Amino acid sequence: MRKYIVVLATTALASTALLAVGVPSAEAASKLQITKVKYDSDGSDAPVTNKKLNDEWVRITNTDDRTRTLTHWTLRDASNHVYTFPTFTLDAGERVWVHTGSGTDTAHHLYQNRGYYVWNNTSDTAKLRNTSGTGGDTCSWTTSDDSPYYC
């Protein structure tokens, strides 16, 4: 019986210690949320232009009260087109738009530098994942949803 109590007490202390040093939790990751997706750019899809590609985007909002780092996080669709964030931080309460086409990255606009559309107009899923490939947020839509779509 004593061995069981010692093991239980040791496990409880270890768990408390992990929480005290700030191990990232799913809740912390969820502070970065996909809040809006424009999956269908204005006008016809053809011909493909950089202007139309940049009219297709995913908006990510930092709902936390502190700056969050997205460096090496990923944004992907259901077909596994993957965008990896460059060195990037998002201030508390701020938003960033991740555009499909090419452009110059700024504090509020990032560019995937693709030559064709990523987000399907019929249905798709945007997945934001941390550097471990977990956490983050997900937003899905279908043809019955308007573009831009609020997640």
UniProtKB/TrEMBL annotation:
Keywords: Signal. Residues 1-28 form the signal peptide. InterPro entries: Lamin_tail_dom (IPR001322), Lamin_tail_dom_sf (IPR036415). Transmembrane segments: none annotated. Residues 22-146 form the LTD domain. The keyword Ubl conjugation does not apply. Pfam families: LTD. This is Lamin tail domain-containing protein. It comes from Spongisporangium articulatum.
